[in-house]
Design a protein that fits this description.
With about 170 residues, the protein is of the alpha/beta class. The chain has one domain (about 1-170): Severin (3-Layer(aba) Sandwich), CATH 3.40.20.10. It has four helices and seven strands. It starts with a strand and ends with a helix.
């Protein structure tokens, strides 16, 4: 599947479609540990997948890391952040649970992360940024909705509390 974005076409491999469908699948966050408190020490469940450019390609993305609730990479925000290389650009899609202050109900929102660390070359950051809009458009089509875009240049930009605040700011239920 491909889409024209900016000056080039974005190509996503078939494994990306399957991983995005798995991340976007409805998940019962209320039965999982979603509150970070003393009585629930286990981490929050955050299904995710990260995308990377295929070696030798300027516009084809494939799966780098995909979370799993049954073995493999744990589906947590900490695992997502840890899976992002500190010297390469990546894109990621995650289903983030958050609790509305108004009614206390746990909801989830899909986020699209453009990871472009300061330690990467300017060219690599420009290429990732150029194709991010097209990739996000395709992923939103496959995921069944609009994801919240997040740009991050370092781990500090990915604090879960800050991401939840950004989700609340865009939500109709605060």
């Amino acid at each position: 599947m491909s889409i024209v974005s900016g000056t080039g076409a974005v190509h996503l491999t078939n494994d990306v479609r399957d991983a995005v469908a798995a991340v976007s699948r409805r998940f019962d966050f209320s039965s999982a540990s979603t509150a970070s408190s003393a009585d629930s020490p286990s981490p929050r469940v955050v299904p995710f997948c990260t995308l990377k450019l295929v070696d030798g390609s300027q516009s084809t993305f494939t799966i780098d890391v995909a979370s799993s609730c049954d073995g493999g990479v744990p589906a947590t925000w900490e695992s997502l952040v840890a899976s992002l290389p500190r010297d390469r650009c990546r894109m990621a899609v995650a289903q983030v649970p958050w609790r509305a202050h108004a009614d206390g109900v746990v909801r989830s929102r899909q986020v699209f992360i453009l990871w472009a660390p300061d330690s990467t070359s300017t060219k690599e950051r420009m290429v990732a940024s150029m194709f991010a809009k097209g990739a996000k458009g395709l992923l939103d089509q496959w995921g069944g909705g609009m994801s919240l875009p997040i740009q991050a240049a370092g781990v500090d930009d990915l604090a879960l509390e800050d991401i939840e605040d950004k989700i609340r700011a865009k939500a109709t239920v605060k």
